[in-house]
Design a protein that fits this description.
The chain contains 4 helices and 5 strands, in the order βαααββαββ. It is an alpha+beta fold and 143 residues long. 29% of the residues are buried.
Amino acid sequence: MIMPAGLGQGVILGIGHDICSVTRIQNILETHADRFLSRICTEAEKAEASTRAHLATYVAGRFAAKEAVYKALNAADQTKMSWRNAEILTGHKGMPVLSLNGGCHDGLMSLVADGATPHLHLSLSHDGGLASAFVIVSSITGK
């Protein structure tokens, strides 16, 4: 990883990618919306989802992102990770903001060297009835 001068040495700890069908999520939402959203989404994600005109597209993106997180953290113990341990909200200028808690946070920290700072990178795309998510987990050591 190339880092700007003065930021120390960067290390990629994991990469994950996933694709999800918006139609598949729409079908699930039509029959099990409350149950599915409660299982997959945090309260903040559910609140944000309730403001979206295209719920299935929003949820498919979050589902793909959470799958990509698990893939990026594949070197960590995943036994205590759950869907709601990864939260994806909309940040500045519509960019997705990924945060980890619980088992996902613990898994991330188990990969980070002492004295290093973890960084999460997320890209979401939607096109042709598909949602795609790409996650890079990295850390920076030193100055």
